[in-house]
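Weekly structure sync - notes
Attendees: PM, LS, DV (DV joined late)
Agenda: review two folding runs queued last week.

Item 1: First target. Sequence and structure tokens pasted below for the record.
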Amino acid sequence: MASAAGSSRVPRVGVAVFLLRGKTVLLGRRRSSIGASTFALPGGHLEFGESFEECAAREVKEETGLEVDKIEYVTLTNTLFLDEPKPAHYVTIFMRASMKDPDQVPQTVEPDKCDGWGWYEWDDLPKPLFWPLEKMVQSGLSPFPDPNSGQ
């Protein structure tokens, strides 16, 4: 069994949030050490005692300035980043949320972490995608609510 002495040896929990507008999704180009220059959803680390919904709302606000509601669970991925300078293991919880005000415009609140936000067609996503998002896309799962489910 691996030692938990280094932080890279302990899995972390990330929460990523699908903000949807029509058939588009909000993505930003990462500037962080893991997944630099890949396109990712707004999100971040789950804090101690925080619910997935609380984390989703907090991270979206911190990164984009957007207020969200109607937050719901979509899926999760279990990802090893072994080719990174500091290998890591992440469990990423994917959530879906609606903007409280559909006229809100995403801001680049953390320019040291993200080059900017844009709306991208789900069927024509930019490349490369951040690995947890790429895994989710490859699974065939869509973040869009099923119109037949009543969501």
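Item 2: Second target, run right after the first with the same settings.
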Amino acid sequence: MTTVTELLQPVELDLENLLSDLRSLIGAGHPILQAAAEHLFSAGGKRLRPGIVLLVSRALSENGALSPRHRRLAEITEMIHTASLVHDDVVDEASTRRGVKTVHSRFDSRVAVLAGDFLFAQASWHLANLDNLDVVKLLSRVIMDLADGEVKQGLFKYDATQTFENYLEKSYCKTASLIANSAQAAGVLSNQSDEKLHHLYNFGRQLGLAFQVVDDILDFTASDKQLGKPAASDLASGYLTAPALYALEENHKLTDLIDRGFSHQSDLKEALEIVRGSNAIPRSRKLAEDFARESRESIAWIPDSCFKTALMELPEFVLSRLY
């Protein structure tokens, strides 16, 4: 199975430079916030989101070169993503991420929230200095969407009446918006036509949604070790994802279990059996496959290069996590 590192190999050196550049961008601000940010960027991770920006940027360049503004866009994308993870960890009360203690575990929740705010502010400042209003609008929308997605997720906890559209909107805000809008922003900086900008946005949107649906399937099918967290933790927390929503259409007993918040000892186990015994997992897999196919089709027009090849393989990589 292809790894993220292998997929991003065409921009490997760019990603290595990204980490050192991020550290210099943070600057010598407040020592605690700087230490928190350093801790985050040193924790590793796949760097998938800035990797996509770099691949799109080089794929659209006539000679495969990378402009300083495209490089800065990739750095801003990673700052926004990292800031959102810090806040998510506080909300979810997660003690580790990527095998490393979370910021609020290492420092405290107050420092973690401020560190996230600090990174969002830094990203906004460097975004403004790109001097491109369209790009500012696209990435500012992402920051709004991330907050909106977190609120939506909280509002619909243990709500068996929520619609599939609610689920997709929340998934877009939390996962797909950053990929979609940063891919489009790379196109804006490359002076692409409105039609091609739409295709770049759609590539990122459908890829992000495929990624989220696959994550939601794995919550029901993967082991605790594979997930790095307890299996079915989303369902236990009252977050209803594609498999649960599909299962609700087939078995109304699941509604009763959700409505009472899995308060009885055997409720969660019974809910899992209902989901796994229905057509919910195959239907969710088909949904992810459709999103992946639409993502791939959206960038067929990009000129052939090693960068385009990597982008075209990304949707298949997302699906391969299921097998």
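Discussion on item 2: The mean pLDDT is 88.
Action: LS to circulate a short write-up before next sync.
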